[in-house]
Amino acid sequence: MQTVALIDYGSGNLHSAEKALVRAATEADLNRTITVTDDPAVIAAADRIVLPGVGSFGGCRRALYARPGLVDALREAVSERQRPFLGICVGLQLLADTGLEYGPHAGLGLIPGTVRQLSVSPGQKLPHIGWNDVIAVGHKLIPQTGDAYFVHSYYFDAADPTTVIGSAHYGCAFPAALAKGNVAGTQFHPEKSQAFGLALLGRFMEWEPE
């Protein structure tokens, strides 16, 4: 049985994410244990890792680094052990080199890029809240276009276009999902995206990065 560590650092809709992961594993007939944790030892030893995030880039970053040993454990699992990793919303944004929300903040640098504010059209409001099409490029995690739920004002401006595995549009085109090696993330909330989101979570829990 594989363990999926859902990181608890005081940010993110953990209850909904946990329920969605459990349901996705059940529907995909996968033998997975979903563990909500901030224990560095558990995270370092996990087979797969999910990092949620709700709020500002800087606030989530501070909360993450405030847990002693958590970031080191995450890096050990992801960079050294090459465990599959999924960031959700701000959990994706934290993978960038830099976030520009309320001033520049260093990210984890796992996928090259900068987090910037959406450039909206006149009459469009921020944050972008609601359902939007995700245009897929055929990656194993998102093999086809679907409808997903977003809540965000900032987006991940990828330095390498080949890391973008799904895109959406609100005022401007922006990456809805990215992946590099064993590291992936979604700007949308799969735990709130019904069948499309559950399918993605199920694929993540059996994903074997190349």
Radius of gyration: 16 Å
Q: Secondary-structure element sequence?
A: EHEHEHHEHEEEEEEEEEH
Give the number of DSSP strands.
13
Query: What number of structural domains do the residues give?
Result: 1
Number of helices: 6
- CATH H level: which superfamily? Class I glutamine amidotransferase (GATase) domain
The end-to-end span amounts to 21 Å
Biggest beta sheet attributes: 9 strands, mixed
Q: Return the average pLDDT rounded to an integer.
A: 96
Taking pLDDT < 50 over at least 5 consecutive residues as the criterion, the unreliable ranges are none
> What is the level-2 CATH architecture name?
3-Layer(aba) Sandwich
Quaternary state reads single chain
The CATH C-level name is: Alpha Beta
Q: In order across it, which strands form the biggest sheet?
A: 2-1-3-4-13-12-11-8-9
Question: Can you walk through the features of this model?
Answer:
The protein is α/β, with parallel strands linked by helices. It has one domain: Class I glutamine amidotransferase (GATase) domain (Rossmann fold). The chain has 6 helices and 13 strands. The chain has helices spanning 14-27, 40-45, 57-66, 70-80, 90-93, 194-204, and strands at 2-7, 32-37, 48-51, 85-88, 98-99, 105-106, 113-117, 128-136, 146-152, 154-158, 164-170, 172-180, 183-186. It has a 9-stranded mixed β-sheet, sandwiched between helices. Strands 6-5-7-10 form a 4-stranded mixed β-sheet, with helices on one face. A hairpin with a 5-residue loop joins β5 and β6 (105-106). α1 (14-27) crosses α6 (194-204). The mean pLDDT is 96. It is found in: Cytoplasm. Pathway: Amino-acid biosynthesis; L-histidine biosynthesis; L-histidine from 5-phospho-alpha-D-ribose 1-diphosphate: step 5/9. One of its GO terms (molecular function) is glutaminase activity. It comes from Parvularcula bermudensis (strain ATCC BAA-594 / HTCC2503 / KCTC 12087). Heterodimer of HisH and HisF.
